[in-house]
Amino acid sequence: MSGVTEPAGAGARPRRKGLTRRQRRRVSRGVQYVVFVAAVIAFAFAADWGRLQDQFAQVDIARQMFPDVITLALRNTVLYTLSGFVVGLVLGMVLALMRLSSVGPYRWVAGIYIEIFRGLPALLIFVFIGVAVPLAFPGTEIIGGTYGKVAIALGLVGAAYMAETFRAGIQAVPKGQMEAARSLGFSPARAMISIVVPQAFRIILPPLTNELVLLFKDSSLVLLLGVTLEERELSKFGRDLASQTANSTPILVAGLCYLLVTIPLGFVVRRLESKAGEAVK
Amino acid sequence: MSSSAQIRIRDLHKSFGDNEVLRGIDLEIGEGEVVCVIGPSGSGKSTLLRCVNLLEEPGRGQVFVGGTEVTDPDVDIDAVRRRIGMVFQQFNLFPHLTVTENLTLPQRRVLGRDKAAAARTAAENLARVGLSEKADAYPSALSGGQQQRVAIARALAMGPQVMLFDEPTSALDPELVGDVLAVMRMLADEGMTMMVVTHEMTFAREVADRVVFMDGGVVVEQGTPDQVIGAPRHERTRHFLSRLLDPAMAEVEEGTSDQVGKAG
Fold first, then answer.
1. In 3D, which of A269, A257, A170, A279 has the Cα closest to residue A212?
2. Is residue B192 within 8 Å of B29, Cβ to Cβ?
3. Chain A closest-CA separation from residue B87 CA (Å)
4. ipTM of this predicted complex?
5. Is B51 part of the contact surface with chain A (CB cutoff 8 Å)?
6. Beta B5-16 vs B60-65: how paired, if at all?
7. Residue-wise pLDDT tens digits, A232-244
8. For the whole model, what pTM was predicted?
9. Does residue B112 belong to the interface with chain A, where contact is any CB pair within 8 Å?
10. Is B223 buried (19+), middle (13-18) or exposed (0-12) by CB count in 10 A?
11. Is B210 helix (H, G, I), strand (E, B) or coil?
């Protein structure tokens, strides 16, 4: 039987010469610290800090990015992300309900959509929206110009992931909830809307927030659509300024601006997750 | 069992795949009658109950509730279900709503009652089950027994003509069973038509007008509690009751693993 646990077995054995278990553990941990410190020191010495600072941390270049980097670039990034998120949310919900439909073709269409758009890089979808759609439907103009295109491109990408999240959330609501609602006289659609979906939303709030973070980063692909000066978001803004000043400081500043949003969001996700964990009990 | 049958079940059959769970059930429950359905697990008693409001679709046979054929393919099932209250083993309260909202939301969405009327009915029914002080609590803050009483109040708030109970006390800690049974007894005394699937023999003996013993998808015997529980005629009934009333005396049997598990 494998029921005998390792420590009991070890304890029963006659003590070997050399280090005890506790001593071995202490030595092992000491070695790990040494390796870590050595790696940090090696890295610190190998890097050319002076040039790095010249290239990435020029305070006056950073200063001349303000306030545009916030009022224009960050604002646009947030706008692009939110519009894409809303489109993805609606489309994802529709796809999830199609996936759970009793009508076969709905399930297939939703399944194919999800497989395709989950498998394609977001970059290709931006190219597709920016180039292929205008070619295929000449003369048509997507409502909202760049904003509309971004909303659709990000929405298409986000919807595929969010549909799966929604589906998992709806399926995570116990079957008894639907049965209770039906036995009270709710129609299937009404039971879904009034009882199941609100509970599913609570379950999927953390993964949905993660999805928002992913879209936030993917919004940088807007630069593939060709944007005007006023439509620039963080990445494009940083890159443009970096080439103007022949210095990489704007890239660093743009990167920090992303973190300004994603780190608090990540914090929110963890809060929501621990709260959701409590609610289950 | 007279002409005023509230629930009438005729030759009901139901299979899950190859497993034939109900093999021709005939049963009538009169207005104001309390019928307890007992039997070993897997005997089909819960399935029978769930066929009455069509949570399970029967394979063959007919079910009538208050004169409407539930099994008619063209029936407005949502309308029929409004007249049938159902109480589940796992309570199935809506966890995202407060106790009061659990009672008012169905009234408003399904019956179209206005806010004030729904709130009034909710308060009345919470008072009936003795939980007025929990009106604003969420289900997760309640004990199992309290949740089940709220679930009963929620069903009552819809004004049902018939109440179905699917093992309403089986998920409760033993000391909480009494409160739920007291509410059910009160309903029975008020003249509610009730079909109760249960393992509570004391309740069946004291409250039921009739006890139905099911095994293997058929009704083995039925009659007054004194007849069925007090002096069972069939060996299967006697065997089941002896195991239920004195589980410690049960012997290990072959091929009845689920019953052995239940006894332990």
1. A269
2. no
3. 8
4. 0.89
5. no
6. antiparallel
7. 888 888 888 888 8
8. 0.78
9. no
10. middle
11. strand
